[in-house]
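Tokens for chain A. Residues wanted.
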């Protein structure tokens, strides 16, 4: 009888152990910290204006809520500026170099518990056909007059912005660079938005990014800023409710540098 009891007890222990599988460990992990998902890996190809980062974060204990989220770049051949880095959906701006980029999403809940997850973005170089199309576009006259130029007083180069609402950002960059090349003897660049229409915060960011690649002071409303390569990458910008026009957005970005 005692032998039978031992056998029954042995089977009971084996059944208990077999019931503790990997899913129980996963469930316990969910209860100890937030669950963070940085999204699926992406394979992209140049040319690109931006990369969309879309993640999620959740606390499985109802007593806790997600309090803080932030995106950061962990690796990559080019340091990119992040727009809305404190949101679950963020944008990495103006990738121009092919390679592997890694971005990390961090989340912290009201219980002080935190977790991270990473996503890999592989950017392939432009194909030969894409390169040829871009070379051809450089020889075509501007169909949309987004930027024109003239010399002002005291050897000041004036960039006059026109219709910004229906122009591709790459075309805007091209027109702006051509205008800057024509103003090769200017001592500084004055931005004139008196004739501009349309555009949004992405347009303003493209203007600042392009201007930061040259060495002349950039002036707006009698105030000048010395931009530099990588200016945007050193800051994480959030959309401002008051930034409802390109001139206001550009002025806000330049104000940040002036201060």
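Reply:
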């Amino acid at each position: 009888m005692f032998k039978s009891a031992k056998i029954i007890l042995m089977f009971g222990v084996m059944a208990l152990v077999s019931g503790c599988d990997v899913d129980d460990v996963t469930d316990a992990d969910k209860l100890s910290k937030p669950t963070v998902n940085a999204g699926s890996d992406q394979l992209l190809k140049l040319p690109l204006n931006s990369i969309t980062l879309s993640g999620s974060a959740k606390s499985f204990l109802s007593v806790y809520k997600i309090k803080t989220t932030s995106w950061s770049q962990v690796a990559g051949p080019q340091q990119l500026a992040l727009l809305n880095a404190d949101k679950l959906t963020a944008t990495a701006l103006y990738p121009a170099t092919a390679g592997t980029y890694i971005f990390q999403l961090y989340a912290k809940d009201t219980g002080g518990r935190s977790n991270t997850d990473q996503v890999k973005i592989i950017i392939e170089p432009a194909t030969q056909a894409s390169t040829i199309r871009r070379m051809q576009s450089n020889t075509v006259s501007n169909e949309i007059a987004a930027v024109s130029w003239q010399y002002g007083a005291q050897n000041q180069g004036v960039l006059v912005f026109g219709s910004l609402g229906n122009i591709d950002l790459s075309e805007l960059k091209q027109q702006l660079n051509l205008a800057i090349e024509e103003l090769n003897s200017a001592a500084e660049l004055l931005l004139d938005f008196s004739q501009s229409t349309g555009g949004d915060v992405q347009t303003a960011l493209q203007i600042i990014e392009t201007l930061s690649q040259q060495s002349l002071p950039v002036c707006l409303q009698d105030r000048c800023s010395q931009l530099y390569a990588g200016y945007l990458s050193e800051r994480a910008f959030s959309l401002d409710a008051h930034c409802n026009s390109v001139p206001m957005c550009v002025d806000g970005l330049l104000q940040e540098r002036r201060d």
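The chain has two domains: 33-127, 142-258. Confidence is low (pLDDT under 50) at residues 1-25, 128-142.
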